[in-house]
Design brief:
The protein is an alpha/beta fold. The chain is 31% helix and 34% strand. The chain has a domain at 55-176: Rossmann fold, CATH 3.40.50. It is built from five helices and nine strands; from the N terminus they run αββααβαββββαββ. The strands form two sheets. It has a seven-stranded mixed β-sheet, with helices on both faces. The chain has a two-stranded antiparallel ribbon with strand order 1-2. The longest helix has 16 residues, at 36-51. The chain is globular and about 40 Å long. The chain binds 1-O-pyrophosphono-5-O-phosphono-alpha-D-ribofuranose and adenine (ADE). Adenine binds at residues 24-27, 102-103, 128, 130, 158.
């Protein structure tokens, strides 16, 4: 029995064939954000999921760019902080870096060394899991700062690409294609 809210959200996610490269079926989550009642349903579901975890979360970690849409609003609802993982060259100060590949390219992620401290319990948030390269890289950064990853959480999972096999921690998704 799927939550009616999940069906409502799924209906307004738009598909684009061959974007940004031939062979990729792009799932666009922005129409959900444009519709305030749908966006509220989505953020409520994400917050309910995090509240159902057996341990209390200290920090929400969001992945640039689309993890920045969902991460802060969830963190605020939970009354905890939000920390960004950014593409290389965007964050100031002392950084930790990791290279990764994703469904349609390669990139580098960075986090500030002191943004998450040893032993803090985090949930890593992004919009979508495809090949899992992006989420795996975020987990490697969490290992380097010695954070405890309670859950990796995405709105959309593209199950055909088996991305969750690459993710070393608990992997959760609301909507599966
Ligand atoms: C997209 C998406 C995920 C990632 C998933 O980000 O938002 O972060 O790809 O792909 P993967 O599971 O194959 O690694 P993208 O790098 O396109 O950047 P954006 O969020 O800045 O649009
Ligand atoms: N990021 C990686 N693969 C994607 C896809 N198929 N749709 C939207 N975002 C993505």
């Amino acid at each position: 029995t799927t939550d009616k809210r999940i069906e409502d959200i799924k209906k307004i996610i738009r598909d684009y064939q061959d974007f940004p490269k031939p062979g990729v079926l792009f799932r666009d989550v922005f129409p959900v954000v444009k519709d305030p009642s749908c966006f509220k349903k989505l953020t409520d579901l994400l917050v309910e999921h995090i509240n159902s975890l057996p341990e209390k979360v200290d920090v929400i970690v969001g992945l640039e760019s689309r993890g920045f849409i969902f991460g802060p609003i969830i963190a605020q609802a939970l009354n905890i902080g939000f920390v960004p993982v950014r593409k290389a060259g965007k964050l100031p100060g002392e950084l930790i870096q990791v290279e990764y590949s994703l469904e349609y390219g390669k990139d580098k992620f960075e986090i500030q060394k002191d943004a998450v401290t040893e032993g803090q319990k985090v949930v890593v948030v992004d919009d979508l899991l495809a090949t899992g390269g992006t989420m795996k890289a975020a987990c490697q950064l969490m290992d380097k700062v010695k954070a405890k990853v309670l859950d990796c959480l995405v709105v959309i999972e593209l199950t055909d690409l088996n991305g969750r096999q690459k993710v070393p921690y608990q992997m959760s998704s609301l909507i599966k294609y």
